[in-house]
Each structure stands twice: as structure tokens, then as C-alpha cells.
Amino acid sequence: MGAGWQRCCCCRTLYPEPGSTNQSSDRKAMKQIIHRRTDCRACASEDLELVFALKPTPIGDDYVSQDRLDEIQPSYPIDLFMCKQCGLAQITDIIDPDVLYGNYIYVTQSSFGLNTHFQAYAENVVQRCKVAPGSLVMDLGSNDGTLLRSFKGLGMKVLGVEFAAHIAEQATASGIETIGKFFERDLATQIVASHGHSRIVTANNVFANIDDLRSWVDGINVLLAADGVFIFESYYLADLIDNMVFDFIYHEHLSSFSVKPMQALFASVGLELTAIERVATKGGSLRYFVQRPSGPMQKDGSVEKLLAEEESKGIYRKETYDTYTAKIEGLKQQTLQFLKQAKKENKTVAGFGASITGTTLIYHFEMGEYIDYLVDDNQAKQGRYSPGWHLPVLPSSAIYERKPDYVLVLAWRFAETFMQKHQEYLDQGGCFVVPLPEFKIIKK
């Protein structure tokens, strides 16, 4: 840790030391890295209300190599606000994208089941939108090109746009042409000039990462052909509440989308939210279909159905989040009570899941000091250290070599799959601890 900083003993948050000669410059540097917006990124209203306060965390996917262990990894807020005008749930503390994505190592293929999901996704879009072979399909936030590779296999021309330049270069080298820039209206104009209008534009689990939503929506309007369709997937605010997936709130996820604000946002630029499909990824997501009012898709009543459900569930009411916060707090206390007792008994605890959601969970549940190390099958994470707490990341085979007394399943949405795969650990006397959506201890 650098001079002039102190670390909170319970949550590892870094703060400038009182009286430090570097305090002024440290705070100035912090302001340059992060800024707080005071208006809604969808409708520009300043009537924002805090609905869920989370513990600050370092950048969630910044798992560091050994030579970076002395680097400062300050924590930043991830509080969830709701716009009382349009209903968009959002975090308002924005980290500079060059900082947020500068050490980005996530690739789509590392996520369990996404290859299969994207193949089915491409087939669904081609069939439902009646896309002819040779049509241009673009993916915004295309990462390693996994989705576009599926479209290409169906006979489409493809083009990706990816924020992380090093990942864009890798995708292009693998045969998926990818532009390594941030998407906005000016880039859309350049793309149309060089490639023409796009029949299909997709943005999957990335639209929620955008601060300037208006510029993106304007850019999409530029890209789309007259019969073009914009399709995006994102985790769903109502499912975040129903399924307890609060750990999907982190610095990259600037917005937690729902139907009401999305309908209004696209209508503001003359586009129409025509249909919605529910999908199981990310703890519960929606696939939105957006087109021009004269576009090729027919309305199927799905938008109106979900709007009615949102109102009946009260996802735009503060009271709903008060109840949600209380449930999360109860699970936190159950988990902490167990971990504290385990440490009193000198038990070892491994955490399964070196993921960005794991960072949110570790910090909000304040349990970093009780975990000895993490295990994960993602080779890109192995040999690295977790954000802030610097817990070493080992391959899953470590649970047989080191024989921890407990494996805390941080990637709890995949708990059943993980536990089935590692039945041998249970047979050898091990024990799984699952903190969400309800606290469970699983022994043989």
C-alpha cells in the first residue's frame, strides 16, 4: 500500500490518511477517476432516490498479478438509485472507462453455458426477424466475438465493436472483424459510411454498462436499416429482486433495466419497443426487440404484459427495496455468524468463484477476512489475486490438494452444477456453504 493511504480494517476500503501530505493530490486523482452524476442517464431528471446502499468495492474484475500486489486498489461506491420520473434504476458514481476496462480480462467464452446460449440466440434472431443470408449483423460490446461467430456460421456478414482494444485485436485475429473503440453516434456515422446500415444490431449484457445512454440510442438509430432491429439482453431489475441476485450490481453495471424506462427511452428517438422475451441467463434477463414503428416485427403483447407485472410487483416503489435490503442483511448476518465460528475453530475456508459478482458479495457481506483463498476453473484468473483483499486464486483441484474444511460458494447461481462436479469433495468429508438465495450448509 502506498504512502498517504490507510485501509479500513473491516472492508479493505482505502482512504487518504488524515494529515497526509499527499491527501489533496490523492483526492484530486480520485475525482479524476470517478465522478457522480446528478441526473438520470435515461431522461435527465434530477429526481433520484437512493433505494439500495451497497458496500464500496474495488473494480470488481481487477484480479491482480503478483507484481501488482503493492498497488493501491481503492474502493468506489456502488449505491443503487432510482429515477422517480422514468423509473430507471442506476448507480450514479461513474469510473473513468479507461480505468475500469484498462485491465479487463473477462472473455465471453469463460462464462459457463454462454457458448450454447449465444448459438441458440443467433438462431432465434435470424428466424424471428426473418434475416436473409449476407445481411450485416453488428454486435456492440462484442468482446471475443462469440455471438458474432454464431451469426457468421448462419451466413451473415458480421462486425463487432468492443471497448477493450486488446480484446478487439484478439477477436479480429480470430476472424471476427472488431473495432476497438467506444461506441457513440459519431462512430455509428463512420460505420454506416464504410459498411452500410445494419439489418441487426445486438448488445448483450453491455447496454447496462453505458453511462451516456442517449448517445448510444442515437447511434443505434443511425446504424439501423429501415427494416433493422436492435436486440439487447440485460439482467432484469424485477428478477434481481425476486431471485436475490444483488451481486449483479457493480461498477460496470451502471443501470439495472426494466421495461417502463426502456420503452420511454427508445420512444424519445422515434424507435419502438416491440417485443420482449424472458431468458434464464444472469439470474434472470430480458431480451428486448426494438425497431422503427414501420419495422418487420409484429407486436405480441409481451411489452404490455411485463409493464403490468412491474406495477403489480411494485418495483418502482421505495418500500420494495426496504424489504429487499432487510432480506439481504439477514442472509449476510447468517453467513458472517457461520464464518466467524469457523475461524474460532481454526477451520479453513475456500471460496468458489473468482468473478466480478464475487467481489460485490465478498465486500457487501464483509467476509474477506474469513476466506483463505479462491478456486476457479477460469485459467485467466488462476495465479492472480482478488481485488482489494488479494486472496490467491487457485484451480478447483486445490480443494482436493488442500482439503479446506468448507467451500463457500460465491458463484452461488452455479452451486448445483459445481457441487455435482465435486461430489468427491463431499465424499471425503468436505462441506459446501451456499449464502444465497437462502443460507445452506451441505454435507454428505
UniProtKB/TrEMBL annotation:
GO molecular function: methyltransferase activity
Domain of life: Bacteria
SUPFAM superfamilies: S-adenosyl-L-methionine-dependent methyltransferases (SSF53335)
Organism: Herbaspirillum rhizosphaerae
InterPro entries in alphabetical order: Methyltransf_Zn-bd_dom_put (IPR013630), Methyltransf_Zn-bd_dom_put_sf (IPR038576), MeTrfase_14 (IPR013691), SAM-dependent_MTases_sf (IPR029063)
Transferase is among the record's keywords: yes
Identification of the protein by name: Class I SAM-dependent methyltransferase
Methyltransferase putative zinc binding domain segment(s): 40-101
Keyword Transferase: yes
Gene Ontology biological process: methylation
Keyword field: Methyltransferase, Transferase
Domain C-methyltransferase: 281-437
